[in-house]
Structures are given as C-alpha cells and as structure tokens.
C-alpha cells in the first residue's frame, strides 16, 4: 500500500491555487470598495459582498482539499493528519459562518482562529521521527514552518489591532498554510522515488 498515493498531489496542489484565485477574483468583483492591504479575506465572503459567492466557494474548495490530503497523507503521523483535517473542517465552517457586512462576529472569528491554530500546528504534529523520513516530515523543517506560521499569525493579530496591513499579513499566512501540505506530499513522493532507485 502506498503511504502517499499520487492523487494527493492534486488535492494538495489545488488548495493554494483555488484559495489565491478565489480572493483575487472576489477582490476584482468587489472593485475599489475593497482594500486588499487593510481588509481581510473574510470581508470578501461577507453578506452582500459582490464576490461573496466566489470567496465562499474558495473556502469550501480549500476545506475539501485539506480533508482529502489529510486522508491520503498516510506517511504523516496521525495527530498531524487529524489537525490538517480539522483545518479543512474549519475552512468549511468559515464558509458556513461568514463575517457580517460590517463589524465583527464572535462565531466567524472563533472558527477562523481555530483553523489558524490547527493549520499552524499540523506540521509539527505530523513529524516522523525516523532518520529515514521524508524531508518535510522531519523535525527541523516541521518546527521551522510551524514557527513561521505562528509568527505570521502574530503579525496578523498585531496588524488587526493597529488597523494596519491586516489583509497582507493574512494573505501571507494563509498562503503558507495552504501551500505546506503540497510541499509535504511532494517530499514524500520524491523520497519514495529516491528509495526505489537506490534499491534497484
């Protein structure tokens, strides 16, 4: 049985592409009323937003991609796969509990925060401690990317508090979080290919 089937490349690779395309198209539909530097992605999916259907669809697609990747990424530790799947569920919940057109929302904010935490922690929870593990499942890269995501989330919170470049900070963090599963999958598949060549 393959620890990482090749179809997981598709689910993990589509996640960042669909998310970024979603926020780009939704922002274009919103026009000059939307400031991508200071406003969050959630504003694009808010009730009444011109591109809300696009951003909502992107959140749903992201959630499905994360769930499929977590299911197929059997080379990762179970706790990491569960956290990645939880991040997928959180993305689906963000779509189901959109931000209001103005002001804050405890429900939306809580769901988004849970998603941020789970997607920041999944790399370190997915670690394979063996020396023969694929590169992206080893402790050092996993700790480094988790630290990067936590730092990015802290930057986002600071920008939100000071009403600064929260949109930029959020996009950086979410882009890294959506891209890392693809890096892990690619690392696992390449590792398997290298081992097959070495034993041939």
Structural topology:
Blueprint: H1 7-30, H2 41-44, H3 52-72, H4 78-96, H5 106-125, H6 139-161, H7 166-199
Please, could you describe this protein's structure?
72% of the residues lie in helices and 0% in strands. The protein has seven helices and no strands. The protein has helices at residues 7-30, 41-44, 52-72, 78-96, 106-125, 139-161, 166-199. The protein starts with 6 loop residues before the first helix and ends with a helix. The model has no long low-confidence stretch (mean pLDDT 91).
Structural key phrases:
mainly alpha, 200 residues, 72% helix
Task: Give the structure's gist in a few sentences.
The protein has 200 residues and is mainly alpha-helical.
Any low-confidence stretches, pLDDT <50, length ≥5?
none
* Radius of gyration, in angstroms, nearest whole number: 17 Å
Provide the structure class.
mainly alpha
Shape: globular
Helix content, binned percent: over 70%
The number of distinct helices, counting runs of at least 4 residues, comes to: 7
How many E strands?
0
Strand share of the residues? Answer: under 5%
Mean pLDDT reading: 91
**What gap, in angstroms, lies between the N and C termini?**
19 Å
The topology string of helices and strands comes to: HHHHHHH
Note the main sheet.
Answer: none
């Amino acid at each position: 049985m393959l620890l990482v089937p090749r179809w997981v490349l598709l689910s993990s690779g589509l996640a960042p592409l669909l998310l970024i395309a979603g926020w780009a198209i939704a922002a274009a539909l919103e026009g000059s009323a939307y400031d991508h530097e200071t406003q969050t992605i959630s504003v694009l999916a808010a009730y009444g937003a011109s591109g809300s259907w696009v951003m909502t669809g992107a959140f749903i697609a992201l959630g499905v991609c994360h769930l499929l990747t977590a299911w197929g990424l059997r080379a990762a530790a179970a706790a990491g796969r569960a956290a990645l799947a939880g991040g997928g569920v959180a993305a689906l919940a963000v779509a189901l509990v959109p931000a209001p057109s103005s002001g804050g929302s405890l429900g939306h904010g809580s769901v988004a925060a849970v998603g941020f935490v789970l997607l920041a922690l999944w790399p370190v929870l997915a670690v394979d401690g063996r020396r023969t593990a694929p590169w992206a499942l080893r402790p050092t890269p996993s700790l480094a990317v988790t630290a990067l995501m936590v730092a990015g989330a802290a930057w986002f919170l600071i920008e939100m508090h000071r009403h600064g470049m929260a949109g930029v900070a959020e996009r950086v963090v979410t882009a890294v979080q959506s891209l890392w599963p693809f890096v892990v999958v690619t690392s696992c598949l390449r590792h398997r290919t290298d081992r097959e060549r070495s034993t041939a």
